[in-house]
Amino acid sequence: MTSTTRNEASIADDRAFTVTRSISIAAPAEKVWRAITEPEHLSLWFGRTVLDGAGVGTMTFDGHGAVPIRVEAIDAPRSVTYRWSNDNALDRLPVELDEENSTVFRFTLAPEGEGTRLTVVESGFEKTSDPLANIESHRRGWDAELDKLIALFGGVA
User: Fold this and answer.
1) Distance CA 61, CA 53 (A)
2) Which of 35, 70, 113, 156 is most exposed, with minimal Cβ within 10 Å?
3) How much is the pLDDT for 2?
4) Residue 10 dihedral angles phi and psi, to the nearest 5°
5) Minimum mean pLDDT among 22-36, 91-105, 135-149: which range?
6) Is residue 3 part of a domain?
7) Is 56 helix (H, G, I), strand (E, B) or coil?
8) Residue 35 in contact with residue 44, Cβ under 8 Å?
9) pLDDT tens digits, one per residue of 43-83
10) Residue 142 maps to a domain
11) Is position 63 within any domain?
12) Which residues span the domain enclosing 75?
């Protein structure tokens, strides 16, 4: 599968149980940082995000439902890590974050010319109900969602 931008598509690693994607965004790191950390900005391109003061909440996707999510770590303005219970192979979403069956995704920012290089790595798929199915589903998801982020900043990067 190819991305709808000039960026490469996500890479699924079935042995390491990870999905990785790096993209170039035609925007300064400060703006990209807000887009990946502030709920009102995440909601513009990812799922509708609601977080409480402790960084716990949900990310809701049309046709999929509310996914429990929590901010795990922040190293502003270089990286932010989230944990979520988004097991697409199950027929249901948990009401609360399920520590034992959740995955973790980390966004890392780096300057790239006048723009920003954003890398996401999602790991922990071996803990899900169907690791290979979830890896493939999330690989497709990161392609679609990160393409929306690129578009938010003015189109193809």
Assistant:
1) 22
2) 113
3) 43
4) -65, 155
5) 91-105
6) no
7) strand
8) yes
9) 999 999 999 999 999 999 998 899 999 999 999 999 999 99
10) yes
11) yes
12) 13-152
